[in-house]
Amino acid sequence: MDFQDFLRHNFAQVAIGEFKPGKFEAAKKLYEEAVLTYNSGFKGAYLLQEPGTDKGISVIFWENVEDMTANQNEAYQNILKQMMPLFAEPPHTTVYELVCEIKPAVEKEDDVNS
């Protein structure tokens, strides 16, 4: 690992919103379609739903902001246009820089085989 690797941080695009009653499932399908259009710089996506509601949070990880912007192509824009009428109001979107990442300790092989 090069020293420059320690200086590189990923970015997260976070959208918080609420869909019209009963529209979360339709929005989820469109979200999955949109994410499938991503390529360079895409590091992963999570869609969270507050149980029993139509409220949700999307977290999409990118290597850099330029990749995030470049992936907002025509296919992505068309899917977003289909999704927007499903929202109760437009979602609040912010970009964050990942500055700390903590992963669980790797299990010992003896613990796994017990």
Describe the structure.
The chain has helices at residues 3-7, 24-35, 65-70, 74-83, 109-113; strands at 11-18, 42-49, 55-62, 92-97. It has 114 residues and is α+β, with helices and mostly antiparallel strands. The chain has a four-stranded antiparallel beta sheet with strand order 2-3-1-4. α2 (24-35) runs antiparallel to α4 (74-83). The longest helix has 12 residues, at 24-35. The two termini are 34 Å apart. The mean pLDDT is 89.
Structure in a nutshell:
The protein is α+β, with helices and mostly antiparallel strands and 114 residues long.
The tally of beta strands, per DSSP, is 4
Sheet/helix structural class: alpha+beta
Helix-strand string: HEHEEHHEH
Q: Radius of gyration, Cα only, in angstroms? A: 17 Å
Uncertain residue ranges: none
Globular, elongated, flat, extended or rod-shaped: what is the shape? globular
DSSP summary: helix tally? 5
Strand content: 25-35%
Give the spatial strand order of the biggest sheet.
Answer: 2-3-1-4
Write the layout of secondary structure elements.
Blueprint: H1 3-7, E1 11-18, H2 24-35, E2 42-49, E3 55-62, H3 65-70, H4 74-83, E4 92-97, H5 109-113
Helix pairs in contact: 2-4
Please supply descriptive tags for the structure shown above:
single chain, 114 residues, alpha+beta, 5 helices
